[in-house]
Amino acid sequence: MNDNPAATVAPRHSHYIAGAWTDPTGRSFPDRNPLNGDLVAEIAAGGRPEAEAAVAAAHAAFPDWAAMRPADRQRLFLRAAEITEKRHDEAVHLMAVEAGTSRAFASFQVQLSASLMRQAASWGYLPYGDVLRSDIPGRMAMVTRKPLGVVAGFTPWNGAFYLGWRTILLPMAFGNTVVIKPSEEAPLSAGLLHAEILDEAGFPPGTCNVVTHAPGEVAEIADVFFESRAVRCINFTGSDKTARILAERAGRALKRMVLELGGFNPMIVLEDADLDNAAAAVNFGAFFHQGQICMNTRKVYVARSVHDDFVGRLAARTRTLKSGDPRDPAVVVGPLINARALAQTTERVQDAVDRGARVVAGGRAEGMIYHPTILTDVPKDAICTTGRDETFGPMLVIEPFDDPEQALRDAQDTPYGLSAAIMTGDPARGLDMAQRFDTGIVHVNGATMAGEASLPNGGVKDSGWGRSGHYAVEDFTEIRLTTITQGPGRYPF
Ligand code: NAD
Questions:
Q1: Nearest to residue 472, comparing CAs of 180, 195, 151, 185?
Q2: Is 155 in the pocket of ligand 1 (CB under 6 A)?
Q3: What is 5-261+463-480's CATH topology?
Protein backbone atom coordinates (compact mmCIF):
# COMPACT_ATOMS: atom_id res chain seq x y z
CA MET A 1 0.00 0.00 0.00
CA ASN A 2 1.44 3.34 -0.99
CA ASP A 3 0.73 6.19 1.44
CA ASN A 4 1.35 8.94 -1.06
CA PRO A 5 0.63 7.59 -4.51
CA ALA A 6 1.30 10.86 -6.30
CA ALA A 7 4.85 10.99 -4.95
CA THR A 8 6.15 8.11 -7.04
CA VAL A 9 5.88 9.59 -10.52
CA ALA A 10 9.50 10.78 -10.71
CA PRO A 11 11.09 8.01 -12.80
CA ARG A 12 8.08 7.65 -15.00
CA HIS A 13 8.75 10.65 -17.14
CA SER A 14 11.22 8.41 -18.99
CA HIS A 15 10.81 5.68 -21.55
CA TYR A 16 11.44 2.11 -20.41
CA ILE A 17 13.77 0.41 -22.88
CA ALA A 18 15.89 -2.73 -22.39
CA GLY A 19 15.11 -2.76 -18.67
CA ALA A 20 16.33 0.81 -18.08
CA TRP A 21 14.62 4.19 -17.67
CA THR A 22 15.93 6.44 -20.38
CA ASP A 23 15.16 9.87 -21.77
CA PRO A 24 17.83 10.77 -24.32
CA THR A 25 16.35 14.07 -25.47
CA GLY A 26 14.85 15.37 -22.23
CA ARG A 27 11.88 16.63 -24.25
CA SER A 28 8.58 16.25 -22.41
CA PHE A 29 4.88 17.09 -22.47
CA PRO A 30 2.44 17.83 -19.63
CA ASP A 31 0.07 15.05 -18.59
CA ARG A 32 -3.01 16.79 -17.17
CA ASN A 33 -6.07 15.92 -15.10
CA PRO A 34 -9.11 16.11 -17.42
CA LEU A 35 -11.29 17.42 -14.59
CA ASN A 36 -9.37 20.60 -13.80
CA GLY A 37 -6.26 20.75 -15.99
CA ASP A 38 -3.90 20.19 -13.04
CA LEU A 39 -0.47 18.85 -13.96
CA VAL A 40 -0.13 15.15 -13.11
CA ALA A 41 3.39 14.62 -14.46
CA GLU A 42 5.82 15.61 -17.18
CA ILE A 43 6.13 12.71 -19.62
CA ALA A 44 8.96 12.01 -22.05
CA ALA A 45 8.14 12.92 -25.64
CA GLY A 46 9.72 10.22 -27.77
CA GLY A 47 9.94 9.58 -31.47
CA ARG A 48 11.81 7.46 -33.99
CA PRO A 49 15.10 6.90 -32.08
CA GLU A 50 13.34 5.70 -28.92
CA ALA A 51 10.98 3.46 -30.90
CA GLU A 52 13.87 1.95 -32.83
CA ALA A 53 15.79 1.30 -29.60
CA ALA A 54 12.72 -0.29 -28.04
CA VAL A 55 12.10 -2.59 -31.00
CA ALA A 56 15.79 -3.57 -31.05
CA ALA A 57 15.65 -4.38 -27.32
CA ALA A 58 12.51 -6.51 -27.75
CA HIS A 59 14.08 -8.29 -30.73
CA ALA A 60 17.23 -9.06 -28.75
CA ALA A 61 15.24 -10.34 -25.77
CA PHE A 62 12.97 -12.56 -27.86
CA PRO A 63 15.01 -15.80 -28.23
CA ASP A 64 15.60 -16.23 -24.48
CA TRP A 65 12.05 -15.25 -23.53
CA ALA A 66 10.57 -17.61 -26.14
CA ALA A 67 12.76 -20.45 -24.83
CA MET A 68 12.16 -19.77 -21.13
CA ARG A 69 10.72 -22.71 -19.16
CA PRO A 70 6.99 -22.31 -18.46
CA ALA A 71 7.71 -22.61 -14.73
CA ASP A 72 10.09 -19.64 -14.82
CA ARG A 73 7.67 -17.46 -16.76
CA GLN A 74 4.90 -18.52 -14.42
CA ARG A 75 6.88 -17.36 -11.39
CA LEU A 76 7.32 -13.91 -12.97
CA PHE A 77 3.63 -13.50 -13.82
CA LEU A 78 2.59 -14.54 -10.32
CA ARG A 79 5.05 -12.08 -8.78
CA ALA A 80 3.68 -9.31 -11.03
CA ALA A 81 0.15 -10.13 -9.81
CA GLU A 82 1.22 -9.70 -6.20
CA ILE A 83 2.96 -6.39 -6.92
CA THR A 84 -0.06 -5.14 -8.86
CA GLU A 85 -2.32 -5.83 -5.91
CA LYS A 86 0.18 -4.20 -3.56
CA ARG A 87 0.14 -1.06 -5.74
CA HIS A 88 -3.66 -0.97 -5.97
CA ASP A 89 -4.08 2.50 -4.41
CA GLU A 90 -1.44 4.04 -6.61
CA ALA A 91 -3.00 2.62 -9.78
CA VAL A 92 -6.46 3.79 -8.69
CA HIS A 93 -5.14 7.27 -7.98
CA LEU A 94 -3.39 7.56 -11.34
CA MET A 95 -6.48 6.41 -13.24
CA ALA A 96 -8.56 9.03 -11.39
CA VAL A 97 -6.25 11.94 -12.13
CA GLU A 98 -5.26 10.94 -15.68
CA ALA A 99 -8.42 9.45 -17.12
CA GLY A 100 -11.26 10.60 -14.83
CA THR A 101 -11.83 7.01 -13.70
CA SER A 102 -14.11 6.36 -10.75
CA ARG A 103 -12.79 4.32 -7.85
CA ALA A 104 -15.23 1.49 -8.69
CA PHE A 105 -13.96 1.12 -12.26
CA ALA A 106 -10.30 1.66 -11.37
CA SER A 107 -10.35 -0.85 -8.52
CA PHE A 108 -12.12 -3.36 -10.77
CA GLN A 109 -9.34 -2.91 -13.35
CA VAL A 110 -6.64 -3.62 -10.78
CA GLN A 111 -8.36 -6.83 -9.70
CA LEU A 112 -8.97 -7.85 -13.30
CA SER A 113 -5.31 -7.20 -14.16
CA ALA A 114 -4.05 -9.38 -11.30
CA SER A 115 -6.52 -12.06 -12.37
CA LEU A 116 -5.25 -11.88 -15.96
CA MET A 117 -1.67 -12.30 -14.71
CA ARG A 118 -2.65 -15.40 -12.75
CA GLN A 119 -4.42 -16.80 -15.81
CA ALA A 120 -1.46 -15.96 -18.04
CA ALA A 121 0.86 -17.70 -15.60
CA SER A 122 -0.63 -21.05 -16.63
CA TRP A 123 -0.74 -20.52 -20.39
CA GLY A 124 2.80 -21.75 -20.86
CA TYR A 125 1.34 -25.21 -20.13
CA LEU A 126 -1.45 -25.09 -22.73
CA PRO A 127 -1.34 -27.87 -25.34
CA TYR A 128 1.64 -27.18 -27.54
CA GLY A 129 0.27 -28.64 -30.78
CA ASP A 130 -1.02 -31.77 -32.50
CA VAL A 131 0.38 -34.93 -33.99
CA LEU A 132 -1.22 -35.70 -37.37
CA ARG A 133 -1.40 -38.76 -39.62
CA SER A 134 0.42 -38.60 -42.93
CA ASP A 135 -0.32 -40.62 -46.11
CA ILE A 136 3.38 -40.98 -46.72
CA PRO A 137 4.63 -44.30 -45.29
CA GLY A 138 6.91 -43.88 -42.26
CA ARG A 139 6.10 -40.20 -41.83
CA MET A 140 4.88 -38.52 -38.67
CA ALA A 141 3.64 -34.92 -38.81
CA MET A 142 3.72 -32.52 -35.87
CA VAL A 143 2.06 -29.16 -35.65
CA THR A 144 3.57 -27.01 -32.92
CA ARG A 145 2.82 -23.48 -31.84
CA LYS A 146 5.54 -20.87 -31.76
CA PRO A 147 5.51 -17.21 -30.76
CA LEU A 148 5.57 -14.56 -33.47
CA GLY A 149 8.48 -12.40 -32.28
CA VAL A 150 8.10 -8.72 -31.38
CA VAL A 151 4.51 -7.54 -30.94
CA ALA A 152 3.99 -3.75 -31.05
CA GLY A 153 1.00 -2.51 -29.05
CA PHE A 154 -1.11 0.66 -29.10
CA THR A 155 -3.12 1.11 -25.89
CA PRO A 156 -6.18 3.31 -25.30
CA TRP A 157 -6.74 5.63 -22.35
CA ASN A 158 -10.23 4.51 -21.33
CA GLY A 159 -9.70 1.20 -19.54
CA ALA A 160 -6.14 2.41 -19.16
CA PHE A 161 -4.68 0.02 -16.61
CA TYR A 162 -6.37 -3.25 -17.59
CA LEU A 163 -6.14 -2.68 -21.34
CA GLY A 164 -2.48 -1.78 -20.95
CA TRP A 165 -1.96 -5.13 -19.24
CA ARG A 166 -4.02 -6.96 -21.83
CA THR A 167 -1.83 -5.46 -24.56
CA ILE A 168 1.32 -6.58 -22.74
CA LEU A 169 0.35 -9.90 -21.19
CA LEU A 170 -1.46 -11.73 -23.97
CA PRO A 171 1.52 -11.68 -26.35
CA MET A 172 4.09 -12.21 -23.57
CA ALA A 173 2.30 -15.22 -22.11
CA PHE A 174 2.80 -17.05 -25.41
CA GLY A 175 6.51 -16.20 -25.67
CA ASN A 176 6.51 -12.93 -27.60
CA THR A 177 8.32 -9.79 -26.52
CA VAL A 178 6.56 -6.46 -26.57
CA VAL A 179 6.90 -2.76 -27.27
CA ILE A 180 3.95 -0.63 -26.30
CA LYS A 181 3.01 2.93 -26.99
CA PRO A 182 0.49 3.98 -24.35
CA SER A 183 -2.20 6.54 -25.10
CA GLU A 184 -0.91 10.11 -24.72
CA GLU A 185 -4.05 10.80 -22.65
CA ALA A 186 -2.99 8.41 -19.86
CA PRO A 187 0.67 7.44 -20.30
CA LEU A 188 1.20 6.56 -16.63
CA SER A 189 -1.81 4.37 -16.02
CA ALA A 190 -1.82 2.89 -19.56
CA GLY A 191 1.83 1.84 -19.75
CA LEU A 192 4.52 3.37 -17.56
CA LEU A 193 3.18 2.01 -14.28
CA HIS A 194 3.12 -1.41 -15.97
CA ALA A 195 6.81 -1.08 -16.79
CA GLU A 196 7.57 -0.31 -13.15
CA ILE A 197 5.67 -3.39 -12.01
CA LEU A 198 7.38 -5.69 -14.53
CA ASP A 199 10.73 -4.22 -13.52
CA GLU A 200 10.02 -4.82 -9.85
CA ALA A 201 8.87 -8.38 -10.62
CA GLY A 202 12.21 -9.11 -12.33
CA PHE A 203 11.14 -9.60 -15.95
CA PRO A 204 14.25 -9.86 -18.16
CA PRO A 205 15.34 -6.58 -19.76
CA GLY A 206 13.82 -5.98 -23.18
CA THR A 207 10.86 -8.35 -22.77
CA CYS A 208 8.51 -5.36 -22.40
CA ASN A 209 9.43 -1.85 -23.51
CA VAL A 210 7.37 1.33 -23.22
CA VAL A 211 7.80 4.44 -25.38
CA THR A 212 5.71 7.57 -24.83
CA HIS A 213 4.96 10.50 -27.12
CA ALA A 214 3.39 13.95 -26.99
CA PRO A 215 -0.11 14.57 -28.39
CA GLY A 216 -0.01 14.82 -32.17
CA GLU A 217 3.39 13.13 -32.36
CA VAL A 218 2.53 9.45 -32.71
CA ALA A 219 3.60 9.26 -36.37
CA GLU A 220 7.33 8.54 -35.89
CA ILE A 221 6.71 5.72 -33.44
CA ALA A 222 3.99 4.23 -35.62
CA ASP A 223 6.31 4.45 -38.64
CA VAL A 224 8.94 2.38 -36.83
CA PHE A 225 6.38 -0.24 -35.80
CA PHE A 226 5.21 -0.68 -39.38
CA GLU A 227 8.62 -0.42 -41.07
CA SER A 228 10.58 -2.73 -38.78
CA ARG A 229 10.99 -6.30 -40.04
CA ALA A 230 11.41 -7.41 -36.40
CA VAL A 231 7.85 -6.36 -35.54
CA ARG A 232 5.69 -9.30 -36.53
CA CYS A 233 2.32 -8.15 -35.25
CA ILE A 234 0.49 -4.90 -34.47
CA ASN A 235 -1.77 -5.24 -31.42
CA PHE A 236 -4.26 -2.38 -31.38
CA THR A 237 -7.03 -1.45 -28.96
CA GLY A 238 -8.82 1.77 -29.82
CA SER A 239 -11.32 3.33 -32.19
CA ASP A 240 -12.33 1.95 -35.57
CA LYS A 241 -11.34 5.30 -37.11
CA THR A 242 -7.70 4.89 -36.08
CA ALA A 243 -7.84 1.17 -36.86
CA ARG A 244 -8.74 1.88 -40.48
CA ILE A 245 -5.60 4.01 -40.87
CA LEU A 246 -3.39 1.43 -39.21
CA ALA A 247 -4.94 -1.58 -40.95
CA GLU A 248 -4.18 -0.02 -44.34
CA ARG A 249 -0.57 0.31 -43.27
CA ALA A 250 -0.50 -3.24 -41.94
CA GLY A 251 -1.86 -4.42 -45.29
CA ARG A 252 0.94 -2.69 -47.18
CA ALA A 253 3.55 -4.05 -44.74
CA LEU A 254 1.92 -7.53 -44.75
CA LYS A 255 1.88 -7.54 -40.95
CA ARG A 256 -0.51 -9.49 -38.80
CA MET A 257 -2.86 -7.25 -36.84
CA VAL A 258 -5.08 -7.74 -33.81
CA LEU A 259 -7.93 -5.21 -33.53
CA GLU A 260 -10.05 -4.60 -30.43
CA LEU A 261 -12.37 -1.74 -31.40
CA GLY A 262 -15.52 0.08 -30.43
CA GLY A 263 -19.15 -0.98 -30.40
CA PHE A 264 -22.76 0.16 -30.53
CA ASN A 265 -24.02 -2.28 -27.95
CA PRO A 266 -27.76 -2.89 -27.86
CA MET A 267 -29.93 -4.43 -25.17
CA ILE A 268 -33.38 -5.95 -25.77
CA VAL A 269 -35.78 -5.94 -22.81
CA LEU A 270 -38.57 -8.46 -23.43
CA GLU A 271 -42.00 -8.04 -21.84
CA ASP A 272 -41.34 -10.86 -19.34
CA ALA A 273 -38.07 -9.37 -17.99
CA ASP A 274 -37.52 -8.49 -14.34
CA LEU A 275 -37.67 -4.72 -14.88
CA ASP A 276 -35.66 -3.75 -11.80
CA ASN A 277 -32.92 -6.14 -12.79
CA ALA A 278 -33.00 -4.77 -16.35
CA ALA A 279 -32.90 -1.16 -15.12
CA ALA A 280 -29.92 -1.95 -12.88
CA ALA A 281 -28.09 -3.63 -15.80
CA VAL A 282 -28.72 -0.68 -18.11
CA ASN A 283 -27.85 1.97 -15.52
CA PHE A 284 -24.52 0.24 -14.98
CA GLY A 285 -23.97 -0.84 -18.60
CA ALA A 286 -24.63 2.60 -20.07
CA PHE A 287 -23.01 4.92 -17.53
CA PHE A 288 -20.02 3.07 -16.06
CA HIS A 289 -16.95 5.25 -16.77
CA GLN A 290 -19.40 7.90 -18.03
CA GLY A 291 -20.07 5.91 -21.21
CA GLN A 292 -16.43 5.71 -22.28
CA ILE A 293 -16.06 1.92 -22.46
CA CYS A 294 -16.23 -0.05 -25.69
CA MET A 295 -18.97 -2.32 -24.25
CA ASN A 296 -21.23 0.39 -22.77
CA THR A 297 -24.91 0.00 -23.66
CA ARG A 298 -25.82 2.57 -26.33
CA LYS A 299 -29.43 1.68 -27.13
CA VAL A 300 -32.18 -0.26 -25.39
CA TYR A 301 -35.15 -1.77 -27.22
CA VAL A 302 -38.02 -2.27 -24.76
CA ALA A 303 -41.31 -4.13 -25.27
CA ARG A 304 -43.95 -1.43 -25.64
CA SER A 305 -46.14 -2.89 -22.87
CA VAL A 306 -43.41 -2.30 -20.26
CA HIS A 307 -41.61 0.65 -21.89
CA ASP A 308 -42.87 3.48 -19.68
CA ASP A 309 -42.51 1.44 -16.50
CA PHE A 310 -38.94 0.51 -17.46
CA VAL A 311 -37.95 4.08 -18.37
CA GLY A 312 -39.31 5.33 -15.02
CA ARG A 313 -37.36 2.73 -13.02
CA LEU A 314 -34.15 3.38 -14.99
CA ALA A 315 -34.39 7.18 -14.74
CA ALA A 316 -34.93 6.96 -10.98
CA ARG A 317 -31.63 5.07 -10.66
CA THR A 318 -29.71 7.23 -13.11
CA ARG A 319 -30.67 10.49 -11.40
CA THR A 320 -29.02 9.28 -8.18
CA LEU A 321 -25.56 8.74 -9.74
CA LYS A 322 -23.08 11.02 -8.03
CA SER A 323 -20.82 13.04 -10.29
CA GLY A 324 -17.65 14.95 -9.45
CA ASP A 325 -13.96 14.33 -8.75
CA PRO A 326 -13.32 10.58 -9.09
CA ARG A 327 -10.88 10.70 -6.17
CA ASP A 328 -14.03 10.79 -4.05
CA PRO A 329 -14.92 7.07 -3.70
CA ALA A 330 -18.66 7.86 -3.82
CA VAL A 331 -18.37 9.46 -7.26
CA VAL A 332 -19.58 7.31 -10.15
CA VAL A 333 -19.49 9.90 -12.94
CA GLY A 334 -16.20 11.69 -13.49
CA PRO A 335 -15.10 14.06 -16.25
CA LEU A 336 -14.99 13.18 -19.93
CA ILE A 337 -11.46 12.68 -21.17
CA ASN A 338 -11.07 15.93 -23.12
CA ALA A 339 -12.87 18.88 -24.68
CA ARG A 340 -13.37 16.97 -27.95
CA ALA A 341 -15.22 14.19 -26.14
CA LEU A 342 -17.36 16.70 -24.24
CA ALA A 343 -18.22 18.50 -27.48
CA GLN A 344 -19.17 15.23 -29.21
CA THR A 345 -21.62 14.21 -26.48
CA THR A 346 -23.05 17.72 -26.20
CA GLU A 347 -23.56 18.01 -29.96
CA ARG A 348 -25.15 14.59 -30.31
CA VAL A 349 -27.62 15.16 -27.48
CA GLN A 350 -28.46 18.55 -29.01
CA ASP A 351 -28.86 16.99 -32.46
CA ALA A 352 -31.37 14.48 -31.05
CA VAL A 353 -33.26 17.17 -29.11
CA ASP A 354 -33.39 19.45 -32.16
CA ARG A 355 -35.03 16.61 -34.07
CA GLY A 356 -37.65 16.12 -31.35
CA ALA A 357 -36.14 13.71 -28.80
CA ARG A 358 -37.22 13.87 -25.15
CA VAL A 359 -34.58 14.14 -22.40
CA VAL A 360 -35.65 11.90 -19.52
CA ALA A 361 -32.49 12.40 -17.44
CA GLY A 362 -29.33 14.48 -17.73
CA GLY A 363 -28.89 16.38 -20.97
CA ARG A 364 -26.44 18.94 -19.69
CA ALA A 365 -22.76 19.52 -18.99
CA GLU A 366 -21.18 20.95 -15.86
CA GLY A 367 -17.55 21.78 -16.47
CA MET A 368 -15.94 18.64 -17.91
CA ILE A 369 -18.73 16.44 -16.55
CA TYR A 370 -21.67 15.45 -18.71
CA HIS A 371 -24.62 14.23 -16.69
CA PRO A 372 -25.81 10.71 -17.60
CA THR A 373 -28.44 11.22 -20.25
CA ILE A 374 -31.45 9.13 -21.22
CA LEU A 375 -33.26 10.00 -24.45
CA THR A 376 -36.61 8.70 -25.72
CA ASP A 377 -38.68 9.51 -28.83
CA VAL A 378 -35.45 9.84 -30.77
CA PRO A 379 -36.09 10.21 -34.51
CA LYS A 380 -34.42 7.55 -36.67
CA ASP A 381 -32.05 10.01 -38.33
CA ALA A 382 -30.47 11.41 -35.12
CA ILE A 383 -26.75 10.51 -35.14
CA CYS A 384 -26.86 8.94 -31.68
CA THR A 385 -29.44 6.35 -32.68
CA THR A 386 -28.33 5.20 -36.11
CA GLY A 387 -25.58 2.93 -34.77
CA ARG A 388 -23.28 4.18 -37.54
CA ASP A 389 -20.87 5.98 -35.19
CA GLU A 390 -20.00 5.25 -31.58
CA THR A 391 -20.81 8.18 -29.26
CA PHE A 392 -18.17 7.82 -26.55
CA GLY A 393 -20.04 9.45 -23.68
CA PRO A 394 -22.89 9.02 -21.18
CA MET A 395 -25.89 9.05 -23.49
CA LEU A 396 -28.44 6.30 -23.96
CA VAL A 397 -31.33 5.93 -26.41
CA ILE A 398 -34.46 3.98 -25.47
CA GLU A 399 -36.93 2.80 -28.10
CA PRO A 400 -40.15 0.76 -27.75
CA PHE A 401 -40.84 -2.29 -29.95
CA ASP A 402 -43.95 -4.31 -30.81
CA ASP A 403 -42.27 -7.31 -32.45
CA PRO A 404 -39.22 -8.89 -30.74
CA GLU A 405 -37.99 -10.34 -34.04
CA GLN A 406 -38.02 -6.85 -35.56
CA ALA A 407 -36.16 -5.54 -32.49
CA LEU A 408 -33.53 -8.24 -33.01
CA ARG A 409 -33.10 -7.16 -36.64
CA ASP A 410 -33.02 -3.44 -35.75
CA ALA A 411 -30.51 -4.00 -32.95
CA GLN A 412 -28.12 -5.50 -35.47
CA ASP A 413 -28.49 -2.79 -38.06
CA THR A 414 -25.08 -1.37 -37.21
CA PRO A 415 -21.61 -1.90 -38.62
CA TYR A 416 -20.37 -2.75 -35.12
CA GLY A 417 -20.56 -6.19 -33.49
CA LEU A 418 -18.99 -6.11 -30.04
CA SER A 419 -21.51 -6.84 -27.27
CA ALA A 420 -25.29 -7.24 -26.88
CA ALA A 421 -27.71 -8.27 -24.16
CA ILE A 422 -31.23 -9.67 -23.77
CA MET A 423 -33.28 -9.43 -20.58
CA THR A 424 -36.04 -11.99 -20.19
CA GLY A 425 -37.79 -14.20 -17.65
CA ASP A 426 -37.41 -17.10 -20.08
CA PRO A 427 -33.70 -17.96 -20.41
CA ALA A 428 -34.36 -20.50 -23.18
CA ARG A 429 -36.02 -17.80 -25.28
CA GLY A 430 -33.12 -15.48 -24.45
CA LEU A 431 -30.61 -18.10 -25.54
CA ASP A 432 -32.44 -18.62 -28.82
CA MET A 433 -32.27 -14.90 -29.58
CA ALA A 434 -28.68 -14.67 -28.33
CA GLN A 435 -27.54 -17.27 -30.85
CA ARG A 436 -28.86 -15.06 -33.63
CA PHE A 437 -26.89 -11.96 -32.58
CA ASP A 438 -23.98 -11.20 -34.90
CA THR A 439 -21.69 -9.96 -32.13
CA GLY A 440 -18.56 -11.26 -30.44
CA ILE A 441 -20.29 -11.23 -27.03
CA VAL A 442 -23.91 -11.61 -25.98
CA HIS A 443 -25.29 -11.81 -22.44
CA VAL A 444 -28.68 -13.21 -21.45
CA ASN A 445 -29.81 -11.43 -18.29
CA GLY A 446 -26.63 -9.42 -17.85
CA ALA A 447 -25.30 -5.98 -18.79
CA THR A 448 -23.56 -5.47 -22.15
CA MET A 449 -20.60 -4.33 -20.06
CA ALA A 450 -18.78 -7.19 -18.36
CA GLY A 451 -15.25 -8.43 -17.96
CA GLU A 452 -13.58 -11.58 -16.74
CA ALA A 453 -9.92 -12.16 -17.45
CA SER A 454 -10.49 -15.78 -18.44
CA LEU A 455 -13.24 -15.13 -21.00
CA PRO A 456 -12.68 -14.32 -24.68
CA ASN A 457 -13.80 -10.73 -25.16
CA GLY A 458 -13.65 -9.35 -28.68
CA GLY A 459 -15.81 -8.27 -31.59
CA VAL A 460 -16.89 -9.00 -35.13
CA LYS A 461 -17.55 -6.65 -38.09
CA ASP A 462 -16.26 -3.09 -37.41
CA SER A 463 -15.59 -3.99 -33.78
CA GLY A 464 -12.45 -5.77 -34.95
CA TRP A 465 -11.05 -9.24 -34.47
CA GLY A 466 -8.92 -11.00 -31.90
CA ARG A 467 -9.93 -12.51 -28.57
CA SER A 468 -8.67 -12.19 -25.03
CA GLY A 469 -8.24 -14.95 -22.46
CA HIS A 470 -6.28 -18.03 -23.52
CA TYR A 471 -8.03 -17.86 -26.91
CA ALA A 472 -5.43 -15.18 -27.68
CA VAL A 473 -3.12 -18.08 -28.47
CA GLU A 474 -4.66 -17.91 -31.97
CA ASP A 475 -3.64 -14.27 -32.32
CA PHE A 476 -0.14 -14.37 -30.85
CA THR A 477 1.31 -17.65 -32.08
CA GLU A 478 1.70 -19.31 -35.42
CA ILE A 479 1.86 -22.97 -36.16
CA ARG A 480 4.79 -24.80 -37.63
CA LEU A 481 4.52 -28.10 -39.43
CA THR A 482 7.40 -30.49 -38.77
CA THR A 483 7.60 -33.95 -40.30
CA ILE A 484 9.88 -36.88 -39.53
CA THR A 485 10.17 -39.75 -42.01
CA GLN A 486 11.70 -43.14 -41.39
CA GLY A 487 13.05 -45.12 -44.31
CA PRO A 488 13.79 -44.00 -47.85
CA GLY A 489 11.58 -41.34 -49.41
CA ARG A 490 9.53 -41.98 -52.56
CA TYR A 491 9.74 -39.20 -55.19
CA PRO A 492 8.30 -38.95 -58.72
CA PHE A 493 11.74 -38.55 -60.29
P1 NAD B 1 -7.91 6.01 -30.38
O2 NAD B 1 -8.17 5.21 -31.60
O3 NAD B 1 -8.00 7.48 -30.47
O4 NAD B 1 -6.41 5.72 -29.85
C5 NAD B 1 -5.96 4.42 -29.56
C6 NAD B 1 -4.45 4.40 -29.68
O7 NAD B 1 -4.07 4.69 -31.02
C8 NAD B 1 -3.76 5.44 -28.79
O9 NAD B 1 -2.57 4.88 -28.28
C10 NAD B 1 -3.45 6.57 -29.76
O11 NAD B 1 -2.31 7.31 -29.38
C12 NAD B 1 -3.18 5.81 -31.05
N13 NAD B 1 -3.44 6.59 -32.26
C14 NAD B 1 -4.44 7.48 -32.48
N15 NAD B 1 -4.37 7.97 -33.73
C16 NAD B 1 -3.30 7.37 -34.32
C17 NAD B 1 -2.70 7.46 -35.62
N18 NAD B 1 -3.18 8.25 -36.56
N19 NAD B 1 -1.62 6.69 -35.87
C20 NAD B 1 -1.12 5.86 -34.92
N21 NAD B 1 -1.64 5.75 -33.67
C22 NAD B 1 -2.72 6.49 -33.38
O23 NAD B 1 -8.84 5.42 -29.24
P24 NAD B 1 -8.99 5.94 -27.73
O25 NAD B 1 -9.77 7.21 -27.75
O26 NAD B 1 -7.69 5.91 -27.04
O27 NAD B 1 -9.89 4.77 -27.10
C28 NAD B 1 -11.26 4.73 -27.22
C29 NAD B 1 -11.69 3.79 -28.35
O30 NAD B 1 -11.17 2.50 -28.12
C31 NAD B 1 -13.18 3.63 -28.43
O32 NAD B 1 -13.57 3.55 -29.78
C33 NAD B 1 -13.41 2.31 -27.73
O34 NAD B 1 -14.62 1.68 -28.08
C35 NAD B 1 -12.22 1.53 -28.17
N36 NAD B 1 -11.91 0.45 -27.22
C37 NAD B 1 -12.09 -0.86 -27.59
C38 NAD B 1 -11.84 -1.89 -26.67
C39 NAD B 1 -12.03 -3.35 -27.01
O40 NAD B 1 -11.52 -4.19 -26.28
N41 NAD B 1 -12.76 -3.71 -28.06
C42 NAD B 1 -11.39 -1.56 -25.41
C43 NAD B 1 -11.21 -0.22 -25.08
C44 NAD B 1 -11.46 0.77 -26.00
A1: 151
A2: yes
A3: Aldehyde Dehydrogenase; Chain A, domain 1 (3.40.605)
